[in-house]
Design brief:
The protein is an alpha+beta fold. It has seven helices and 13 strands. Helix 6 crosses helix 7. The longest helix is centred in the last third of the chain and has 20 residues. The chain is globular. Bound molecules: coenzyme A (COA). The site of coenzyme A (COA) has 25 residues, from strand 5, helix 3 and helix 4.
């Protein structure tokens, strides 16, 4: 898994990518450049990356030839009395997304962490990012452990654009049977027909999905929470709508988590869902 992989690149061309630890100053600087491109700011400097690597952390790059297409940065930490890897950042350059590089870097990380005796890799992600949800909940089989409103405060991220930085905290139990099985079998097919919805949605005047009505007292064992399939485009075009999505989904997740529900799965956008995407919550 730490090694070479072949992908179908843009236009169907074959792309050979090596996932391996970053090791030189130039490679650490490249991680800084990717951060600048993706978030518009550098939160983990070359110095920090280099020192973290020496202290039990991991810095991985996905290299297409000499060019770094993405990187992953994790440090060793302690969470609820267990040693874990906290995977603070992963990013793939725009033109190289959706090829499977993020998945490959996570697999490589898992392998290296297991070799260190680590059983959990944790990180956060924005619940409204459907691509991250598909990868984390669907492909990797993480468990969502918490919802943190405005987790990092207002920070200068080009993605967040001044919105509250709400996050799910995830635990990827990398040695568990559940995860081994998920990696072997892929995301389960979930039949969402007939499940009640915590939010009824409709297209707004700006052409993006908005919430029409919230249902916060559904008692059935399983229910759906819809999220927008293209949050970045929606946020760029209609920041007020993005702000509403943040407030409304915060209410929904906090309400149902307090009522004992957990995220069971994620249904990615597809023709069979009419392009919609949903978290499945289960009590
Ligand atoms: C999150 C990120 C690292 C993923 O990298 P990636 O290489 O594109 O990931 P992968 O290709 O392995 O997986 C993406 C999955 O999302 C799916 N996807 C694509 N568009 C989607 C959408 N609009 N909604 C839901 N899923 C979508 C892809 O089909 C793929 O799933 P599949 O492998 O089952 O087909 C990348 O999108 C990124 O850099 N984002 C910005 C930074 C960020 O959010 N980092 C993570 C938090 S630190």
């Amino acid at each position: 898994m730490v090694g070479f992989h072949s992908f179908k690149g843009p236009g169907g061309t074959a792309l050979r990518v090596q996932v391996r630890p970053a090791r030189s100053w130039e490679e650490f600087r490249e991680c800084e450049r990717i951060q600048q491109e993706v978030w518009g700011t550098i939160a983990a400097s070359s110095e920090l990356l280099s020192v973290t690597r020496k202290c039990g952390g991991i810095v991985l790059g996905a290299f297409a030839g000499k060019k770094m297409a993405g990187f992953l940065y994790a440090f060793l930490g302690r969470l609820e009395k267990r040693l874990v890897h906290w995977s603070h950042m992963m990013a793939v350059r725009q033109g190289s997304r959706d090829l499977g590089l993020g998945f490959r870097m996570k697999l490589a990380h898992r392998k290296l962490a297991l070799a260190q005796g680590i059983k959990s890799i944790c990180w956060t992600y924005d619940p409204l990012q459907s691509r991250n949800a598909a990868l984390n909940v669907g492909r990797l089989g993480v468990q969502i452990t918490k919802y943190i409103p405005d987790c990092y405060g207002h920070f200068p991220s080009a993605i967040e654009k001044g919105l509250a930085s709400d996050r799910f905290v995830v635990n990827w139990a990398i040695a568990s049977q559940r995860v081994v099985q998920r990696l072997r079998q892929g995301p389960p097919q979930i039949d969402v027909s007939g499940l009640p919805r915590a939010n009824e949605t409709a297209l707004t005047a700006s052409g993006f999905l908005g919430n029409r009505k919230l249902h916060l007292s559904i008692r059935s064992r399983r229910l759906l929470v819809e999220i927008p399939p293209h949050t970045d485009a929606m946020r760029a075009a209609d920041i007020e709508l993005a702000r509403r999505w943040r407030q409304e989904t915060r209410r929904i997740f906090q309400t149902y988590f307090r009522a004992g529900c957990r995220v069971e799965g994620f249904v990615a956008p597809s023709p069979s869902t009419g392009g919609g995407c949903f978290y499945v919550l289960k009590k």
